[in-house]
Design brief:
This protein is an alpha/beta fold and 514 residues long. It has 3 domains: 2-242, Alpha-Beta Complex (2-enoyl-CoA Hydratase, Chain A, domain 1); 267-430 and 467-496, 2-enoyl-CoA Hydratase, Chain A, domain 1, CATH 3.90.226; 432-465, no CATH class. Helices cover 38% and strands 18% of the residues. The protein has helices at 2-16, 21-29, 35-42, 102-118, 137-153, 173-176, 195-202, 208-212, 214-219, 231-242, 284-290, 335-350, 368-373, 375-388, 403-408, 432-445, 450-465, 469-474, 486-496, and strands spanning 49-51, 74-81, 84-91, 122-128, 159-168, 180-184, 189-191, 226-228, 297-299, 307-314, 317-324, 355-361, 393-402, 418-421, 426-428, 479-480. The strands form 2 sheets. Strands 1, 2, 3, 4, 5, 6, 7 and 8 form an 8-stranded mixed sheet that branches. Strands 9, 10, 11, 12, 13, 14, 15 and 16 form an 8-stranded mixed sheet that branches. Strand 9 (297-299) and strand 10 (307-314) form a beta hairpin.
Amino acid sequence: MDKKINELLQLRQEALSGGGFKRMSARRAQGRMNARERVDMLLDAGSFEEFDMLKTHRCQNFGMDTRQYPGDGVVTGFGTIDGRLVFVFSQDATVLGGSLSETFAEKICKVMDMAASAGAPLIGLNDSGGARIQEGIESLAGYAEIFERNVRLSGVVPQLSGIFGPCAGGAVYSPALTDIIMMVRHNSYMFLTGPKVVKAVTYEDITTEELGGADVHTSISGVAHLAYDSEAEIINGLRRVLSYLPQNNLESPPWQNNEDSTEREVLELGQVLPPSVNQPYDMLKVVIPCMDKQSWMELQPDYAPNIITGFARLGGASVGIVANQPQHLAGVLDSDSACKAARFVRMCDAFNIPLLTFVDVPGFMPGRQQEHQGVIRHGAKLLYAYAEATVPKITLIVRKAYGGAYCVMSSKHLRGDVNYAWPSAEIAVMGAKGAAEILYGREAAATDDPQEFLKIKEQEYQDQFANPFVAAQRGYVDDVILPERTRFRLCRALGMLGDKRSERPTRKHGNMPL
């Protein structure tokens, strides 16, 4: 018995050593953690239970029979975060570059299946160079098995991805199928083909960072949601975002009380809007004061910044925020902002997170580039997402709500539950100036002073239509509220909608305009 125990202890020590002391030391010298250190920092102290610690690959080709590492380059198991059960896998780049083998994939698939059965979140800590070339089709089959489970778990349990190192080729698709992606600046990257292949095919010289670094994916491609400067920060980010999400699609998000009164008046809201309707301002100065203190967490702040998405709490309840940002492109909707918001709306709906929408939108971005990029199709994604969502939907029109963009931004006509407006709201087909030119342009040309004539007609249109009262008379706005009472009214509306029930027609699935 003692001999067997000693053999077990030796195998465990080999597994804990990953790819060996030399490789581990080299990573620490670079300021990077190993796979188990990341897991230990992510999970509550002492809560991690590991699976398949001794599992090894089966490959006999290319000398692989002499290169065996217990665990085969990935650490898998379960633990808790703030006392809540989660499943986790952490790839170990010290073992054959973190490359994925058949058994590596089997380990990940096992914890994915367990997450599905237990109804608990899955967190992947990715640091892999891609498929293990020595295994060929077995490695590719392993990736496909993981992808299939990502899709099966989508909208069932939260799936979070942290990118800590290379994520290349087939390795990028599993994170891309998850709900939230976070990256470490300068150490992590994602791309389908690396710089060498790009140069060979397109003759383009490009660095790894320029091709698929964290800043690229959080500001240009929109692949990732957040980027951090250190591994400790990304791990804290993963823990924090999980606090807004439920265990699974059958549960409500966790409630947290921060003792911020739901009746608190927000007096500064009366001073946020500038004197001219054409002047920009920061919508976050409206959003953040209305939420529970210290609860705001923005997602994708650098991508399509003309729209804001993020989590917060309102009266202790987790909520998802979508808001036009007049500070960027006047808050106009375009292809990127519509896609960004649509995906966020669908994630909130999948996990029972109520949606609060703050509206100040002059319309959709005009022009050939946007039309050729398919702004119609992309805008339809956001329309579809809001119309499909069955979670509580509360909308506040702060200033402009023009044309089709008014309809798309969680209007009453898309089954918005409670729709409020400030007295400053302008709800119309278009701005007064454009409307006057279309309606009275020919008539103005026949006058002695066309500009003065149009100015008078513009003011008439502004007085008659560019206000919230016509919409309120029709019942399209439930109430026109005072800015300083916004938090109180939002909290009351959210509380009223707590037990909302909404049934959808039976169908296999809709055909979203992807």
